[in-house]
Amino acid sequence: MNKPKMATEKGNSRIVMLLGQLERMNGEAMVRDVETARQVTTKILHLIQTQGKNNSRDVQTTLNILYILSELLSVGEGRRIGVFVSKGGTGILFQIQITASKELPPSEELMLQLHSLLAKVGPKDRKFGVKARLSGALNVTVNLIKQNLQNVKLLLPCLQVLRVYAANLVNAISLGKNGVVELMFKIIAPYSKKNTSLVALDALGALLKSKTNARRAVDGGHVPALLALYLDWHRNDTRHRHMVIRRGLLVCLRNITNIKLGRKAFIEADGMRILYNTSTECLPVRTLDPLVNTSSLIMRKCFPKNRLPVSTIKSTFHYQLPHVPPVGPVAQLYSQPPGVDDVVDESDDNEETEAESDTENEEDEKDHRTLNDDIETDLNKLHPVKSPGRPFEELRAYERFFLELSEDFQVSVFYMVLIHVTTPGSQESCNSVKGQHTQPPPSAATRTPAAPLASLELDSIHLTKDQDNKEEAHIPTPDGHTTFATRHIQSPLLLGDIATRRVGGGGSDCGSEGAEDEGGEGAVLEVPDTALLLPLHDPDLYVEMVKGTHSVPQYAEVAYPDYFGHVAPTFKEPLVERVYGVQRSKIFQDIERLIHPNDILDKVVYDLDIPSCPVIEDGGESLKFNSQFESGNLRKAVQVRKYEYDLVLNSDINSNHYHQWFYFEVSGMRVGTNYRFNIINCEKSNSQFNYGMQVLMYSVQEAIIGRPRWVRTGTDICYYKNHFARSSIAAGGQKGKSYFTLTFSTTFSHKDDVCYFAYHYPYTYSTLKMHLAKLEALRTPQIYLRQDVLCETLGGNTCPLLTITAMPESNSNDHICQFRNRPLIFLSARVHPGETNASWVMKGTLEFLMGTSPLAASLREAYIFKIVPMLNPDGVVNGNHRCSLSGEDLNRQWQNPNPELHPTIYHTKSLLQYLAHIQRAPLVFCDYHGHSRKKNVFMYGCSVKETVWQSNISATSSDLLEDLGYRTLPKILSQIAPAFSMGSCSFVVERSKEATARVVVWREIGVQRSYTMESTLCGCDQGKYKGLHIGTRELEEMGAQFCVALLRLKRLTGLRNHQHLLDLESDIIGTQSKVASPTTYVMEEDEPSFLEAIDYSAESDNEDAEPENEHGNDVHENPDHLDQLSDSDTNHRD
Ligand SMILES: [Zn+2]
């Protein structure tokens, strides 16, 4: 029967001939000859076609050919199937199938062979589903299944084909209408009958991706049935030989629970408990991980969405803007009617939104789409066009910030220290700052900065009683040795003479009062003298600075870490290895909240929204929280279990989102107890906390015994999507979004300690002011340092502007001329408050520039530095993550900054416009940032060429005339700075970035070397610091290396011969002058799309956004789209 029967027709002799060829092909090395295969296949197909027409009743001949095909397609690693498909083989098979189905009864053997072949070809044919539907093959297969439920031999290949059909969504809907869902439920069986379940389950799983089918399954009462089946298999399959079947059952449940009705049925059928218990039993067996992961996914999906435990997501603090911008997020916020519940959406019942819920990949997909969309393709915008900007008459006012360009040094005492405080226009209100800069700050006066300090005697710090609650300002001991101010250790540290927010507000009810009430009882701590290690730090000066800092909540407390200072530890802090299954176990603990509700305390222990008494006294049962100090931003703390706390961060002011940065204080801890902290309203879809990053902790007890420092800490760290619903109001109109949880655990090692946790090393505005004041002390007669006030912020803080260069060698004309003609370097930092690392890099730059090294001296002689070290003081002061008080991202305002709403950007841009007008545009512009999702330090620049290369737009060669100078500085940095990675740099101009400093300064001011420098918040994966966390020492080093790189740049650009310069630059660039590899292409300059795969095995539910509605026929058939669906589905089977 299996031998081809020789008939009379010519065609049969051709088959013999083909067979001969086939035999040779199968037997010899020619197997790999695709060309031959192609020929043979073509001939066979032709044969089948003519066979079909002329001799349709010759079933045997058809069968013979199918046998040959089957044999032919079984080898060749799928390439032959590819050829077969490309020649239209699938369609011919369907034709034969339809023809054969008309025979009554159809030949079983023919159907068996056909379906076996189809099952083989189907997964390789992207249009299989469409072809099947159009040829009418769906019903043939379905009828065969219905008629052969007991005939396993035929049933199996039919189910396999059905599985491929069902992967196409339109097919799935149509099959569902024909009762195939019910049919599959008949086939899948309990453990006692393990037969065809597996393939039927696969088919069913695919069918249930259609929401209509899922609804059908729910209506048919199949959710409890599936759960019962799962439990049955779980109990009986003790040796885990049928894990795929168990997983198949879970996949069905997973797809059904994509609809709200399904989740409801799941909960009602006690699904949470069943899956929780079975998973717990599966946990010890590593091979059962897929079951645990899918179960956990289903449970998370069905976990009832909670609302954040706050009454509004708008920031606790409000700042009235002088005027509200007409459009944008702030306008939206202000136009929101009072009383609207912005924490959750009014109605969660909208099935339409379900398609989007829980799609973990959604954002990445979107990023992927934008990846190419976002590249600037308008050539006009790619050519730097110097914008006229403001009229020169207006810009002339900025002349005062460039005294060095007109200074003649004839009148003034040559070596006299130059200090100017100037403000643009009429903003004389800032002159209070004058005091800070023109004379030493009061407290600093008591300590001579240059006084020789004896070696540190941190060991000698001791606790004493202090009856007088006033700060003892600095008591020098007779021998001039260690000098300490004494202070209570208590929480919080209050500024005695500043009105506090709580004054008059019933503050005396609070458990933790000011110093007055506890005077004489608490132990008194002595401030570690870190002057030698931290030359720019001075606790007393810090307190003075805080007094001049304006915060919206009017903070009256000082956080100890900012007061004591941070001495970078000398030991290495490696990135942590992620513990296997940590996310899963954390999620299970979250699910237990639902399973065992009685274990949950839900006790609010801190609440910023209740102004009178945010700290709860309860006799030591709970931790105490606080973050009412500069840069703090904890809004609420809820004790959920004895040693576990849910924490809610405050939104940026005048905003209802941007939660990521955190800085808060904890006290009342038990020594040695493991505490779990969950920050439950994070917003980014992934975080370096999943890739080795730890949080930072500062212990006051450690500080007073001589180790004042932030250390990386935390175990069981992970970052995952949680069950707290995010309102569409805060999610840009998108419904069904969730927040993310950052969870970490830690133990405390000191009794009566006060500890602080932060996202990254804090660097407050007051710290900056202190550092700037101390920089003055580093001045030598050779250094020209001027500190101006650029402007005042909305919140009443001043924005400092620094000028650093070398004094002219003499007041001779030549020297004065050289002095004035030095190229300018323009630097800025900290436009984003949450990126504190940028400030530490800036500190490194400033200290280096003020240093005594020959390099620093040469650098000062080479350039004039203009530096705005903190572009967003208000955001920093108020604990914002991203915005200024205007509720906007200031780094999206450079195109059209508003002088009232964005004064720091407006005036910084004006400085640059002024320079452009007088033909002194800076040689380099660089804005320092921090990066939360990538490792290392790297730069973004602007290049026409590289943008054109990335975007496929056609450009003439003259459009691409561009020298490679923009690559020189990053290239030098990659050679000298260990944390810097050239591979992560990108020089593409993106549309979404057209209002950032980098792009605007490049395009409008005409600065070719205009950069954003991004420093990781996490650590490095290359170079000397590979595998280590980044610390303040490395960040400061980066800032210093940036200066060194500028000096090298000077040597290259200092050459007059321009062509020579280009050669040299090309030289230093080496062979790197190719386009950046696509993997380094970045999305958002601050937050490029996340390119590492997210290890969310428990979350990749791989939902396709279905183009589905009730009427399958109405679905617009876009073959490409459908093919993608079927493709992705067949591929994700695992
Ligand atoms: Zn940034």
UniProtKB/TrEMBL annotation:
Active site: E1014
Record's subcellular location: Cytoplasm, Cytosol; Mitochondrion; Nucleus
UniProt KW keywords: Carboxypeptidase, Cytoplasm, Hydrolase, Metal-binding, Metalloprotease, Mitochondrion, Nucleus, Protease, Zinc
Biased composition range(s): Polar residues: 425-438
One Gene Ontology biological process: T cell differentiation in thymus
Annotated catalysed reactions: C-terminal L-alpha-aminoacyl-L-glutamyl-L-glutamyl-[tubulin] + H2O = C-terminal L-alpha-aminoacyl-L-glutamyl-[tubulin] + L-glutamate; (L-glutamyl)(n+1)-gamma-L-glutamyl-L-glutamyl-[protein] + H2O = (L-glutamyl)(n)-gamma-L-glutamyl-L-glutamyl-[protein] + L-glutamate
Any GO MF annotation of the entry: metallocarboxypeptidase activity
EC numbers, comma separated: 3.4.17.24
Region (Disordered): 330-389, 425-449, 1094-1134
Domain of life, source organism: Eukaryota
Primary enzyme class: hydrolase
This protein's GO CC annotations: cytosol; mitochondrion; nucleus
Keyword Ligase: no
Alphabetized InterPro entries for the sequence: ARM-like (IPR011989), ARM-type_fold (IPR016024), CBPC1/4 (IPR033852), Cytosolic_carboxypeptidase (IPR050821), Pepdidase_M14_N (IPR040626), Peptidase_M14 (IPR000834)
Cofactor dependency: Zn(2+)
Primary localisation category: cytoplasm
Family: Belongs to the peptidase M14 family.
PANTHER family per UniProt: CYTOSOLIC CARBOXYPEPTIDASE, CYTOSOLIC CARBOXYPEPTIDASE 1
Protein name: Cytosolic carboxypeptidase 1
Species for this entry: Amphilophus citrinellus
